[in-house]
Write a structure and sequence with these properties.
The strands form two sheets. This protein has a three-stranded antiparallel β-sheet, with no helix packed on it. Strands 4-5-6 form a three-stranded antiparallel β-sheet, with helices on one face. A hairpin with a 2-residue loop joins strand 2 and strand 3 (about 75-80). The protein has helices at about 1-20, 30-50, 120-135, 140-150, and strands at about 55-60, 65-70, 75-80, 85-90, 95-105, 110. The chain starts with a helix and ends with a helix. About 45% of the residues lie in helices and about 30% in strands. By secondary structure, the chain is of the alpha+beta class.
Length: about 150
C-alpha cells in the first residue's frame, strides 16, 4: 500500500507544480478530469492490493480454507486444492531473507508470511500438503528452495 501512496503523493506534487506554473490550470476541465481519473485508479489499486492478510489456513476434504482480515473486517474463502498454484518467493534484504508462500488462483493471490510471522516449517508443511492434494511431485528446483526455507 505504501508504494501506491507514493504514487498519489507524486501525482499531487505534479498537479501542484503545474498549478503554480500556470494560473489557469484549474480552469482547464480536461486536466481536472484526467487528474481525478488517475487518482481514482491509484486509490483503487492501493485498496485492492492491500486488502488481504491471511492469519490461518485449514485443509479439509481437498479444500483449502483461508481465514484473513481486510482492514478490520474478517473474511473466509474456501478454494479446492486442484485450483491453486503454490510457490515460494523470497523477500527481505540481503542480510535478512525470508520466504513468502504464494497461493494463486484464477481470481485471487494469497501471500503468506509477508510480515515474516509464520514459521518456516509450517510454510514447508503447507507447500508439501498442497502439492500432495493436487497429485503433483515436488521437482528438484522446489526441493532446493525448501532446503533454503528450512535454514
Amino acid at each position: 500500500m505504501l508504494k501506491n501512496l507514493y504514487g498519489v503523493i507524486i501525482l499531487s506534487v505534479i498537479v501542484l507544480v503545474m498549478a503554480l506554473k500556470n494560473p489557469n490550470f484549474f480552469l482547464d476541465i480536461k486536466l481536472i478530469i484526467l487528474t481525478a481519473l488517475i487518482s481514482t485508479f491509484l486509490i483503487y489499486f492501493a485498496n485492492r492490493n492491500s486488502k488481504n492478510y491471511v492469519y490461518e489456513i485449514n485443509i479439509e476434504n481437498d479444500k483449502l480454507i483461508f481465514y484473513g482480515e481486510s482492514y478490520s473486517e474478517e473474511w473466509k474463502e474456501v478454494i479446492p486444492a486442484k485450483e491453486i498454484n503454490v510457490a515460494f518467493k523470497s523477500a527481505g534484504s540481503r542480510f535478512n531473507i525470508f520466504y513468502i508462500l504464494k497461493f494463486k488462483t484464477q481470481n485471487n493471490i494469497f501471500e503468506i508470511n509477508e510480515h515474516n510471522d509464520w514459521s518456516s516449517d509450517l510454510l514447508v508443511e503447507l507447500f508439501e500438503k498442497v502439492k500432495e492434494l493436487k497429485g503433483e511431485k515436488i521437482i528438484f528446483d522446489e526441493k532446493i528452495i525448501i532446503a533454503q526455507v528450512r535454514k
